[in-house]
Amino acid sequence: MVNETQQTCSGSSSSRSDGSSSGSESSKDNSRCSTPVLDADRHERLREKMRRRQEAGDKWFSLEFFPPRTANAAVNLISRFDRMGAGGPLFIDVTWHPAGDPGSDKETSSMIIANTAVNYCGLETILHMTCCNQTKDDITGHLQKAKRLGLKNIMALRGDPAGEEWEEEVDGFNHAVDLVKHIRNEFDDYFDICVAGYPKGHPEAESYEADLRHLKEKVFAGADFIITQLFFRPETFLKFMKDCQAIGITCPIIPGIFPIQGYHSLRQLVKLSKLEVPQEIKDVIEPIKDNDAAIRNYGVELAVSMCRELLDSGMVHGLHFYTLNREVATTEVLKRLALWKEDPRRPLPWAVSAHPKRRVEDVRPIFWASRPKSYIYRTQEWDDFPNGRWGNSSSPAFGELKDYYLFYLKSKSPREELLKMWGEELTSEESVFEVFTCYITGEPNRNGYKVTCMPWNDDPLATETNLLKDELEKVNRRGILTINSQPNINGKPSTDPIVGWGPSGGYVFQKAYLEFFTSSEIVTALLKVLKKYELRVNYHIVNVKGQNITNAPDLQPNAVTWGIFPGREIIQPTVVDPVSFLSWKDEAFALWIEQWAKLYEEESPSRMIIQYIHDNYYLVNLVDNDFPLENCLWQVVEDTFELLN
Amino acid sequence: MVNETQQTCSGSSSSRSDGSSSGSESSKDNSRCSTPVLDADRHERLREKMRRRQEAGDKWFSLEFFPPRTANAAVNLISRFDRMGAGGPLFIDVTWHPAGDPGSDKETSSMIIANTAVNYCGLETILHMTCCNQTKDDITGHLQKAKRLGLKNIMALRGDPAGEEWEEEVDGFNHAVDLVKHIRNEFDDYFDICVAGYPKGHPEAESYEADLRHLKEKVFAGADFIITQLFFRPETFLKFMKDCQAIGITCPIIPGIFPIQGYHSLRQLVKLSKLEVPQEIKDVIEPIKDNDAAIRNYGVELAVSMCRELLDSGMVHGLHFYTLNREVATTEVLKRLALWKEDPRRPLPWAVSAHPKRRVEDVRPIFWASRPKSYIYRTQEWDDFPNGRWGNSSSPAFGELKDYYLFYLKSKSPREELLKMWGEELTSEESVFEVFTCYITGEPNRNGYKVTCMPWNDDPLATETNLLKDELEKVNRRGILTINSQPNINGKPSTDPIVGWGPSGGYVFQKAYLEFFTSSEIVTALLKVLKKYELRVNYHIVNVKGQNITNAPDLQPNAVTWGIFPGREIIQPTVVDPVSFLSWKDEAFALWIEQWAKLYEEESPSRMIIQYIHDNYYLVNLVDNDFPLENCLWQVVEDTFELLN
Lengths: 645, 645
What we know:
Two copies of one chain form a homodimer.
Chain A: H1 46-55, E1 60-65, H2 71-85, E2 91-94, H3 110-119, E3 125-130, H4 136-148, E4 153-157, H5 176-187, E5 192-197, H6 208-220, E6 225-230, H7 234-246, E7 253-257, H8 263-273, H9 279-285, H10 292-312, E8 318-322, H11 328-336, E9 364-365, H12 372-378, H13 415-422, H14 429-441, H15 463-466, H16 469-477, E10 481-486, E11 489-493, E12 507-510, E13 512-518, H17 520-532, E14 537-543, E15 548-550, E16 558-564, E17 571-576, H18 578-596, H19 605-616, E18 618-624, H20 633-644
Parallel strand pairs in A: 1-2, 1-8, 2-3, 3-4, 4-5, 5-6, 6-7, 7-8, 9-17
Antiparallel strand pairs in A: 10-13, 11-12, 12-16, 13-18, 14-15, 14-18, 16-17
Helix pairs in contact in A: 5-6, 7-10, 10-11, 14-16, 17-20, 18-19
Region (Disordered) (chains A, B): 1-45
Protein name (chains A, B): Methylenetetrahydrofolate reductase (NADPH)
Pfam families (chains A, B): MTHFR, MTHFR_C
């Protein structure tokens, strides 16, 4: 009876439980992951993700962006990546702007924008690349750089020839297929390759059929999937798809969707793509061409109905959106299609990076909780990332953070806004306390402006921190200037909307944590109070010069967040690590100057107040180890103030 | 005010928090341990342990044993190591028996006994080694072997010359000091070296003073500490110690204590050591020389009073006991001195090995919980041991277990006793169920014998398992033949006398675990029942042929015991690992045959019953992932029986 179930190994596609295995020779199999897979997505390549979604009948979408022209536009685009990333795109792609030095290190280059999307926003990303008018060496150089930056997917395109008199070069890159072949020759299977399909045929192709044959060549040269040019009628795509299948193209073909967002952008796109807008669309648009809102509404309507028809055909599993770097229309379409899935559950308590090197990373110091991009930047040279235990890491030192100007590290808010929030003029340390307090309470400052960010937190208070709001307000008013904190959690379900993370069926835990700047007077009292809590509270207290006071045993890290999941090892994604705290200290103190003091004139009283705090305050972190009991850290602070009075 | 506390880094002697450190260059310091130090003892060498104990004013003791003559005596000596190890000796030492092929692989050799003490009993161990009449190559060979086996301490002795006409050899090893120099020359600082001191002077020395000079030479050649020959009066030792100090010997000098245990052993020892028994002792002993108990009582009394005097002198921090391989007298003396410290708290839930390679080991599969020596044996070739996560281990396969005859793997009980416990004659599978049930209940079997061990458990039921006794009894009666189990624990203090482990101030957790053999009929029903518990219970079911059924995701290990401690990362010392389960399966099935079936004649009905079970039963393990809820595994079994009826 039992034999009928033999060789079953449910829940795992990489089954090793073959009936014949004797076990003892094979006890340490390489096929086993070295870290618990909390999120299969992190370990799969894009084509595998597509396959898995298709098999599961799980529809998806992707988003196309072009690189911005200015550094400020880049800052905004990155915020857009973060916001639109929340809707759950399977990937985004970044176009290649031959005119914009696309492979360079400029913050607006295609390469750097794609790098940012992968590494700092954690998005699966396709980098476009065109090949005409470029040398083999140039192209190889770009591809090597892309690989080095952790990019894993290339959209291989011919690109637009420069000038009218373009002629095919012998042995040159004349067609996208040459680029596909080159990538496969030089980089083997490293990249997933996407190619473009033209539902109406490429405008320069001899015929629709000839163009289909070109597409087949690209696929047979090694492309993994196809994204199509935009089109206006669903039947255009469905016919194209059937024609592809008929000539033996079996890879995924993803329709490119262009929600019409305005009269001019439509005209421009049509001109570039040499497509014709169907009469029925022109008939609607022409009369309302000066009414942007009306056109956008119509565009959304049209896109939704076309997407519905595509999805209902059963032939389409994913939709690719030409966003034109805009949010509203595409988001609206996705929400109406119920494809926009804001999943409040997080695989880990912090946002994971999509760089393949960081695939196994599952533990970070808590200090960078509000500055994940800075953490990623400062650890970008590491070859290995800690997983399982922080202490196991053989990673090198943190990189210096001198590049506060970099667009993924600087505040989203311009100087004028920051001045309104943090004060045009500071008169005393107390006016700094007020800024911190307003940030916590969400109430307007004395000039009527809400403080929505701080040098250490570019976003409003996290939902979790809100749990501590009242207590935080009280202590900030009195000069305990908090920059990071978490409540203690004793086994909440991993699906808890506020503190949950990881797969369902688990339990998450936290030790209470509080990190703040404060004066040396308060530190002196605090240290006396901490003696009473010696066995319960771990502390690290450091000033800008690195004078360091701690009771951490043997400089070991203290796990402050962990989760227990069915069938897995324990995950402990955040630690308070005494050693990296000293690297964080440099950054935390520098932010006073870089982000705040420098808003003011040199020698101005405001600037001198911030400089004084920078020079004289201490950075303190406290952990209450007794997570099952009520958080004692507020009592510690209370006792400290009592001692001072 | 704060400056007075700067540069303080309490709780750590390897402080890195110097005031000048800028932090960012030094964030990944090599001096940091790669694993949480739960037990500093595991990371220190013997001389450091001595120093730390002395600094802490913490008195200690050590125990000397000689290698046994027979394999059976070796089995008994190992049990004695385990029992006397429980009292907390700082180390044990094993003498070198030149006549007994001391460096060989025989189970009774000095080398192998010391190896067993270190690796299988987890005891810090000193191996004696003598040098006279041996070639340099022989000695180097012994030392290399000792190092390979994980021995870290050598007692360097001259040894007794063979025959009367011994003469010093030029360039030979004529004195212990030659051996000390040789060890330091060839092995640098690898070994801690102990040498012998003679409170009355060596019998062959020209004078007491000349002998002191020899001792000084040995120390200056590189010895780390001194253990003395036995003596009968405390003042003998105290004078000796002062004389040593006077000539510049500053290393620890440990008095050798010989509790008189019998008339004949005393006479023999006195003869060998050429010591004279003081008249006041002779006066007591002679009249009672035929009354062993009286002599032993006197010996204990005498030793206790001498040890008290030594300890009270303030010059003595540790006591070394010549046990003569006996337990009673030494244990009695230690208990009366309050040096015997049975610490029910365990650094980890399993007994750690003292091999330096295993210093960082802190996670093991739960399967070997009752067979730690076998686990150590089967993993002895591993170069790295898992720490932090099981899944991180790059360890090779488990060694085959063919050596059931080895004295550290076989049952402490002789065949006749096993037959009484497990049945001289089995009549059916049910008579096997009875044996399992009697082992659980502690009640005598039908022939009136208590079943105190099983092939999978050489000791009576663990205290923790006792918590499950009633449920276990019920299921064993019905053919769920349990061999391993643990209750679920949701955050008990780490000092809990039954389930606690690790340093105080922590919390320990467990997932409920149940492992058993059972028939294929029961397995079929069980699998149907398990469908209901799919998300909650992980299972592995395997038969002797390796047919394997599991719902473990991606063959990942499941952490089933973990602990949260102040200021440390999470420790998860036991896992249910799908891959190593297949290695354990081989061992667990083989034990039916090796330990049980082979007690009976070939072809006998008893043997055939065991063989039938071996060939047809399944080995099952179940984990209830919902550790905060009531253990559901009993309900799973209940449902299974219900389905069968």
